[in-house]
UniProtKB/TrEMBL annotation:
PANTHER family: BIFUNCTIONAL ALBAFLAVENONE MONOOXYGENASE_TERPENE SYNTHASE, CYTOCHROME P450 FAMILY 4
PROSITE patterns, sorted: CYTOCHROME_P450
GO molecular function: heme binding; iron ion binding; monooxygenase activity; oxidoreductase activity, acting on paired donors, with incorporation or reduction of molecular oxygen
Family the UniProt entry places it in: Belongs to the cytochrome P450 family.
UniProt name for this protein: Cytochrome P450
């Protein structure tokens, strides 16, 4: 274990707050399995060996909880699937899982395609667009239609903006040495509460309308409400709200972020761009990829997987040891904070030749070649692996295929491209591009 020392009372907090990705990349350059550093008064261990990552996420996962800083999202997501611990997490995941199994997800493909078709029909023949916002709007529409059976009009205004407020303020608090109580009337606390209240109102209305209409829809909301009404362990009203909020927000944010980075990478790598467009043109009969065509878009899938390697939306995973545990040859005490970064592991030169280069050919049939397990894990792993993994990949291929089939994209070279590591790894100023409808 290597310890990166600092003589300052706040440790490495300032460097971490200023540029978390650069700081973690610097720490990972030490040729060791674990790198220890201090953020404020807390000692943090960054795991940079895949076998140790697997132990924490899989074989000894029951020795860890999610780290406390991410509980800053608790006012928004409550005790939903993303933040809850066992036994609540296990019970809720068992209830929600069937809605995300591949066989069930197939039913959603038509809704994904139709939402995409309707969204794109309003685009002009030639215009400049804020692609990152467009993708947030579209993925919100898709998750709303498929999982909740609703259509949220003006999604960016109603959901996107308050979500950005929540993420920015939560990130600021996570990186702070000293956090003011949330009850204090600071500017940030007031803005945070207003944003959460706005999102709460939207989710409450969605649930209320479903109860009033008494729909027997088989979407996720229908499953949750049916469980609430018939299960011997009835779901509380607040828990239903928490799960709907988690699915609504986490279910569109990460996919939109991944697609935004993919579009940036394609526009700045013309050869790869042309290969994707040629594949879509060759294999897709209509303007929007059909479910039966998705599995044949192998190169398009490779591009998405390689984009997830370079820019995983879930760029940092935090864990807190709840008991003493051996990880590899190292003893971790109760209360010890552990960091695992897919962003750092997936750019590690020990495992990847030219790790910074966008190269979809690294993947063969959806898998990396000659790379140990838990070097590449953009969806996490173990019992907390992303429940929507298959849903997200199907959605991403349909949306990306539709974009490339219907439009040509030209990168705005005046754009400033910088990663913004909030709760998810966003593009700091969004992505702007010139868009031209194909003839």
């Amino acid at each position: 274990m290597i310890t990166v020392r600092s003589g300052k009372p706040w440790g490495h907090m300032r460097s971490f707050r200023k540029d978390p990705l650069s700081f973690l990349q610097m720490a990972a350059k030490y040729d060791d399995e674990i790198v220890s550093f201090r953020l404020g008064h807390k000692s943090v261990k960054l795991l940079v060996h895949p076998s140790l990552v697997k132990e924490v996420l899989v074989s000894k996962a029951d020795c860890f909880h999610k780290s406390k800083p991410f509980q800053e999202l608790e006012p928004l997501l409550g005790n939903g699937l993303l933040l809850s611990e066992n036994p609540t997490h296990q019970k809720q995941r068992r209830l929600i899982q069937p809605s995300f199994r591949p066989a069930h997800i197939k039913k959603y493909a038509d809704l994904m395609a139709e939402s995409t078709r309707c969204f794109l029909q309003d685009w002009g023949e030639r215009e400049e667009r804020w692609i990152s916002n467009d993708l947030m709007e579209l993925t919100l529409e898709i998750i709303s239609q498929t999982m909740l059976g609703v259509d949220i009009e003006n999604g960016h205004e109603l959901v996107g903006k308050p979500l950005e407020t929540v993420m920015e303020i939560a990130t600021k608090r996570i990186r702070s040495v000293v956090r003011s109580p949330k009850s204090w009337g600071t500017t940030d606390n007031i803005a945070f509460k207003q944003a959460v209240d706005q999102l709460d109102g939207i989710v409450s209305k969605i649930i209320e309308n479903r109860h009033v209409n008494k729909s027997n829809a088989e979407d996720l909301l229908g499953v949750l409400i049916q469980s609430q009404e018939t299960s011997t362990e009835k779901m509380e009203v607040e828990q239903l709200r928490n799960e709907v909020m988690t699915i609504l927000l986490a279910g569109h944010e990460t996919t939109a972020t991944a697609l935004t980075w993919t579009m940036y990478l394609l526009m700045t790598n013309k050869n790869i761009y042309q290969k994707v467009q040629a594949e879509v043109d060759r294999l897709c009969k209509n303007d929007i990829p059909a479910y039966e065509e998705v599995n044949h878009l192998e190169y398009t899938e490779k591009v998405l997987l390689e984009s997830l390697r370079l820019y995983p939306p879930a760029w940092l995973i935090g864990r807190l040891a709840i008991k003493e545990v051996m990880i590899g040859e190292y003893q971790f005490k109760r209360g010890q904070t552990v960091m695992i970064s897919p962003y750092i592991m997936q750019r590690n030169s020990r495992y990847f030749e030219e790790p910074e280069r966008f190269n979809p050919e690294r993947f063969v049939k959806g898998k990396l070649q000659k790379v140990p397990e838990y070097v590449y894990f953009p969806f996490g792993g173990g019992t907390r692996v992303c429940i929507g993994k298959h849903f997200a990949m199907l959605e991403a291929i349909i949306v990306l295929g539709a974009l490339m089939k219907n439009f040509n994209f030209y990168f705005n070279k005046e754009s400033i491209i910088k990663a913004d590591p909030l709760i998810t790894l966003r593009l700091k100023q969004g992505l702007h591009a010139y868009v031209e409808r194909r003839k």
